[in-house]
Protein 1
Amino acid sequence: MLQLDHVEVCYGAFKALKDVSMTVGQGELVVLLGANGAGKTTLFNAISGLIKPSAGDITVEGQSLTGAKPSAVVSAGVVQCPEGRKLFPQMSVMQNLLLGAYVHRRDKAGIQQKLREVLELFPILEDKKDQPAGSLSGGQQQMVAIGRALMGRPRLLLLDEPSLGLAPLVVKQVFETISRINRQGTSVLLAEQNAFAALKIAHRAYVIEGGRLVMEGDQAAMLGNEDVRKAYIGA
């Protein structure tokens, strides 16, 4: 589904990503673990076309998307749900959701079908659809953000810190929903600091530090790795 080969990103003289190579297979849920500033968001933005890599190649289903415009990346089936949700707070929940379908705006029937699927996944949004998105709780806003991303019909969904700032019970619900989205056939790359919750639903994981991938493994290996437990889970 996704392959990165020796990707590097520079901000002036600062190298934010260093020789990053990784894959996400069809139907996989892969977690990217790392502390603040490790390079998770930069990696997502490079995949999404929001920043251009200074070296390396990014391919999706065999198609190179290196340097492609964000709209072309979305059209290719890769959609990012950004850290901090980035909703339009004064617009209604429904308006925010429909913005996610912009690249498919000519397919009215398809948009309505996808909207029904999103509201089935997040039933509470049906009752809140006419309310300003900014008036919702943090957990409900995260539902809108994920729902908006799903309206883009991703085959690969990039989720950047979806549990950030949420209560533990809400975090549990969010991760259950992410797992359900994956089981329904969408590949997922999930960037998280909440390592234990993320690894519980993941097939594989990578660890990024200082812009470089320093570790990778399947769910069991990462949960059992002492260094991962000390750094991200707690011994």
Protein 2
Amino acid sequence: METLAALGPAALFMISMSITPGPNNVMLTASGANYGFRRTLPHLLGILGGCFLLFSGVALGLGMIFERFPLVQTSLRVIGSLYLLYLAWGIATAPPPRFGDTQGRPLSFWQAVAFQFANPKAWVMGLTLMASFLPEDGNTLINAFALAGAAELVAFPCIALWAGFGMAIGHWLKGPRAWRVFNVTMGALTAACVIFILG
């Protein structure tokens, strides 16, 4: 019963965190524009799967590693920042999909899963979600999976909006120059997330 009572406030928290800009949403927008919604779906589902694993792990003690070993947190920030810069470069230099080569591909499911463990926003979401809304009564494993699963169900339409927004922009962009400006802008926004990671 306590688990059900926690789902309402937890859902509001996840909506506010999932629909706001961050590395995942910026990359989904760029992917939606360049590859369309269908090809971006594995990336989107990978974000949800990665966050589910991360959030569940936090509830089961993974978050304590951050508290006991600050070097782990620092290492994740550096790794996450470097990977984000790599992705930003890939976005900024991507050829226009209708005018360049078509060999480019969006982030895969497993790449998106792995990125969540180096994504500080995902860690903040997981730590706050589990610290604030995980019921104390009942089986911790079941409660953790239930809360993490419900959180990702709520997050799905929120992040899907960003991929859909990108797809709409992709239909609107005309000519190689417009595509280059868009991709460079999205790459720069992705790279700018590093400021918040290391700040």
Protein 3
Amino acid sequence: MTQPRPLIHPRDEIKHTMSRIYGYRMTTTSGGNLSIRDESGDIWISPARVDKGNLTRNDIVCVKSDGTVDGLHPPSSEFPFHKAIYEARPDIRAIVHAHPVALVAFSICQSAPNTKLFHQTHSVSGRVGFAPYACPGSEQLGANIAATFAEGCDSVILENHGVVVGGECLSTAFQRFEAFEFAGKTLIKARQIGKARYLDDEQLRIAADRSVALPTFEPETALPTERELRRQLCEFLRRGCRQRLLISTEGSFSARLDKDTFLITPTQKDREELTVNDIVLVNRGRQELGKKASRAVLAHQAIYDNDPEVKAIVFAHPVNATAFSVTDVVFDTRTIPESYVFLLDVDHVPYGVQYQADGSIAKYVSTRSPAAILENDGVVVAGKSVLDAFDRLEVLESTAEAVINARSVGDVSVMPDEVIAELRSAFNLN
């Protein structure tokens, strides 16, 4: 796929991406570094010994192709391995190095997470590698990492250190880094509750080969109701990414306008960066001209068709709830009253049901059963508004985290049938 012509200055790209990484708590004030190799061969890189949480565009350093340095600070002490990777892999134009906790855990255990937990994560992360230890900032570390990248690896665990990923642009490298850490975090959580289940090659193929080709239409002028729903979707997508309920490459969110029409996120666009103009209008099986709806559009359509009371749907990958999706452990909401009242009983959906065009996903999700765990693909939640769907997603993830944490405290105690009956009566859940 041809990358678009870059128009954002490398200083601004690095500053913005570092802000996201730091805001997601995927690096520390002093840890990590980002770089971009531009068309002239110059390398733009984050500086040494500057607060990552307060980086400005003027802090970014340019190391010219002739070795001269242009900037207010010295370049990162890890510049040697950035340079070595670029020399070993001409196709790589951007690098992310950081110390996110899950991947650091793997690095100090001399292993790497298996990304076949999810089809999208496996695809985005690329080929995974492991580079042996050498002193940070040393030429030997650069040689070790570059040799691993030269083998064709895209995401590389550094022994007792952290992770380095490369991409054809910084947004790709960031998404690869985020997806790789997501796989690591989910696997760690899954191992706390049971045995992790991985996708085989055929299952990965089924997910990768699915496509949706909707006819297009040119919509009329957007009324205030539509404009408001576009705003809400973008607002909650940003909030979801920042709360780590969503990641930039996975998940979809939609909101119903009327019986035949809904709005949905587009495919292959960074979820946190979406604007109201990116959201796609879908009407009677047609998509807005010039846009491409999420590949989950048929699943959203089926749920809306099946239950007229559903007004919003979100497919998401919050780490703790998703840990249940990659194990055979049943997710039980009968832990505290809020969990049961908001979620009722959460069903487990067999792998791939949501990819089918027969509408069978609607059997698992409705206002009477508003949340479900998707085998090896996160969760789906429905609500009577965008806020309601997002609230239920938060409750689902909080409950999952509490249940996982409870296992280190003692035996999980669920509420008995008489308490559930009382809740159903008190909150009119019958």
Protein 4
Amino acid sequence: MSLTIAALIAQAVERLKSVGFEDPGREARLLVAKATEISAARLSLEAREAATEQQQSTLNSLLARRVAREPMSHIIGQRAFYKHDFKVTADTLDPRPETEALILAALERPFSRLLDLGTGTGAIAFSLLAERPTATGIATDLSQGALSVARENAVAVGVADRVELIQSDWYAHVSGTYDLIVSNPPYIALEEMPSLAPELSYEPRMALTDEADGLTAYRKIAAGAPAHLTSGGWLMVEIGWQQGTDVAALFEAAGLKNIAVLPDLDGRDRVVTGQNL
């Protein structure tokens, strides 16, 4: 029996609601848009149109994946972050709204040469370069899979000619100095992993945890920063909301000055900044 687009949405809402999703209406519309290849903005306009059997079957498959808590970004293949849409796969960390606090902090400082350590999708580096048309940068990641995704995103955002992508374990294959170093490293402590949301089990574990106390990456990033920053250059990192004091202490131990712990839009500690003087 053929259903309308509106009926597909209603069915999806009920299924998602039955298993406890907080915003089933929004998620249902995203999934129906993906299944029907109708933009979310046009779903209301085409609500009375009949859905094909293939569209119904595709939606059922997408719903099964979402009910299994696969991230929505993996299912639809992208995530909106700052001013752009970024391709997302199982090889990359899903860009999150709280990371935009790092973008806002970085854009308060002048920079012409950027280094992004552990770039993942490239969301941080490419968002910054898009806002600074004369700036250039290096973006690194240990994962070749992540770098492949980042290359596609660099083209989509329009910064591919101004960024070099390098496979590197933090600073291992990085040379030169930079006005700005940014990073959103793995900061979840091993003991916290079992309590995470089930969606995170689909993301690369190496992008989430250091398998230790959550501070391993910050130790390496802070220690190497003075040798890779210009005089007056800044290091800015995203942190877990309880890590401000510890990460600020690592910045101080590395000799950085003007250290600050900045909040995200929810008022939680989210970014630590320090200057090389």
